[in-house]
Amino acid sequence: MAHTTNRIYIDTSVTPHIGVSIADIQAVLGLSNNDIGGLITQGVAQGKINKWAKYKPIHYPGKYELSDADFRGRPIDTNDHSLVYGLKVTSQVSLIDPDEFHAATWEYEGYPNATGLSGTSMYRFLDFNGYNKNAVPNLYGLIPSSSLFYIGTTVAICTGHSVVNEGFRVNNTDGVDLARYVVDGLKLTDEQLMARLAQCYPAILIGNYLTAVGVYNSTSGAVDYGTIVRANGSSWVVANPNWCLDLTKRDASGNAPWTADTSTVATLVLVYTASANPYMITGDATTDITQYWIDLSEERLWTARVFPLPGATGVTIEITRYESGFLVTPREVVSCTTSTVTIGFDITYHGVETSPTGTASITAKVGIGGTEPVKPLLLRGATATTATVTFNASEFDMAMFMPNTDYTIVVNTVSTPDGATGYGQFTFRPS
Questions:
Q1: Between β-strands 148-151 and 315-321, what pairing exists: parallel, antiparallel or unpaired?
Q2: Which domains are seen in the chain, by residue range?
Q3: Tens of pLDDT, residues 251-285
């Protein structure tokens, strides 16, 4: 026997080796056909062959035993039919069709003698050597089906405060090796593969618009679009699973992606630029996925590879315009020392949103001239009614606040969403 319940293999533990037999294939596929051609045809027709298995019957003329490069597919099948490891993979370069990306299903269309493929193929027993009926793709992503994205906040969030639960994951399995396919290399070492994946940027295609997602920094309120691959034990994962997405961005022409509440579909993609920056379009050093929306409905020539991730395509999401505004009003100097001054704020809300999300920009000035530092005040899924912000003397270009000396601090706030402004002027005297 050369199979387990889930896997078919050549048994090399005995001499002579025990090869793959009809009985092995029958047992693992759960089929009864008694010839190899019939088993493959029946397995494809009934969906009994796991399409994600790296080693499975594919259309390949000649040869009794295929190499890994052969299993990846012939250039003619990849170029003419977008096939890789027997799967139909959405086009990655040149004119990108958002509808095609959202509809990507990685159908098993490259089986032996499939309609439309050139030449004829042998029905090979050895195509099943290494077949695993439980294999999963060696690169996949996830967008929660309950995602609820907000428009009008500085950083948009979805239900659960994470645009993507786990981002993408690279697994060591018997599954199709999409990780290498994304960066266009088959003979890469694991180290080379990870170095190239570190040049990929996670992005999300919502409707016809693409923007980068990044790691949300709760201290600065910014989204970090840095390197996304790191080692984690024996596997490789994104640097942080708490990715966020800014839905207030404009495209290069200043257009907003949405003007009204809507429901649409989203697809998580990896963008491979073969460089350490996310500039996407040839000759256009200003089009940056971290700064702008890029409208994929326009016909543009792209040099980047954009790859939709299995498990994260065509997910229906709610796009909701944020309806609550809030006002942040400077109230008083809460405390001060020779090195710091802390300001207290009152926060009031209006609108119908019960779980407000937004940001206030706090600007302060001490004395005449000098630096006017700006700090964010972040409100994430809470209805806080007060807050404090501390400024250091050094932020005003002062070595220190002199003791027993009166200072005047002027504080301004601008809230997002809503654009409401607040103002306060206070005197403080460090002791």
A1: parallel
A2: 22-128 (no CATH), 140-321 (no CATH), 325-428 (2.60.40.1940)
A3: 777 777 776 677 889 998 888 877 766 676 666 66
